[in-house]
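User: Predict Acetyltransferase's structure from this.
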Amino acid sequence: MSRLLVLGAGGHGKVLAEAAEASGRWDAIAMLDDRHSLLNGSLRWPVIGSIDDCSVFSSEWSDAIVAVGHSVTRLRWLEMVESLGFAIPVVVHPSAWVSPSAKIAGGTVIMANATVQADARLGRGCIVNTGASVDHDCRLGAGVHICPGVHLGGEVVIGDGSWLGIGCSVIHCRTIGCEVMVAAGATVIDDIEDGMTVAGVPAREIISRRNKS
Ligand SMILES: CC(C)(COP(=O)(O)OP(=O)(O)OC[C@H]1O[C@@H](n2cnc3c(N)ncnc32)[C@H](O)[C@@H]1OP(=O)(O)O)[C@@H](O)C(=O)NCCC(=O)NCCS
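Assistant:
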C-alpha cells in the first residue's frame, strides 16, 4: 500500500495534500506538524504527530513529502525523511500538464493548472504553484519556488533556493542566480545575480526592508 505523509499542515500543506489526493496515487494521506494537538480534527487529513516523530511512522508510511515554504527547511527535512527510508515522490495535480520529456526530482510538487514543458529539468524540493508555467528547456535548481501565476519563457535557468513571487514573468534564456527573490508582478528581462531582490517592470534591484538598517 502506498501511504503519504505530508510534513507541514499549513496552507501549503493543505494544497499539497489535495493535489496528492486528487492524483489518486496514494491509499492514505496524513500530516505531521508541531501543532498537531491543535490541528488534528480540523483538517480533512489526520495530523498524527510532530515533525520529530517522523521516524516512528517510517514502517507504516511508505512516502513522505515536505510542505513548508522556507526552502532551506524544505530541503533539510527532505534529506531527513529520505535518510529514514521514506520514498520521496513528485506530486502532480491531475489538472497540471507535465511533458513526458521533462525530468523532475523527488520532493517537487506541481500544483493545479500548472504547466511544465518539454525537456525542462526541475531539481529536488521545488514548488510549481497554481497556474504557473515552466517552458521548454528550463533548468530549476533545488528548492526553487515558482509562485502562483508565474511564467518562465524557454531555457530560463534558476539557481537553488530562489523564489519567484506571484504573477512575475521571466523572458526566455535568462539566468537567475541562487537565493534570488523576484517580487510579485515583476518582469525579468536581464540576468539576475545570486542573492538579489528585484521588483518592477522591468525588474530592478530593490533594497528590501530585510536589508535596510
Ligand atoms: C519582493 C518582496 C518580498 C519584498 O518585500 P519586503 O522585503 O518586505 O520589501 P519592502 O516592502 O520593504 O519594499 C522595498 C521596496 O520595494 C518596493 N516593492 C516591494 N514589492 C514590490 C513589488 N511587488 N513591485 C514593485 N515594487 C515593490 C516597495 O514599494 C519598496 O519601495 P521603496 O523603498 O521605494 O519604498 C515583496 O514585496 C513581494 O513582492 N512579495 C511577493 C509575495 C508573494 O508572491 N506571495 C505569494 C506566495 S505563494
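The chain has a mean pLDDT of 96.
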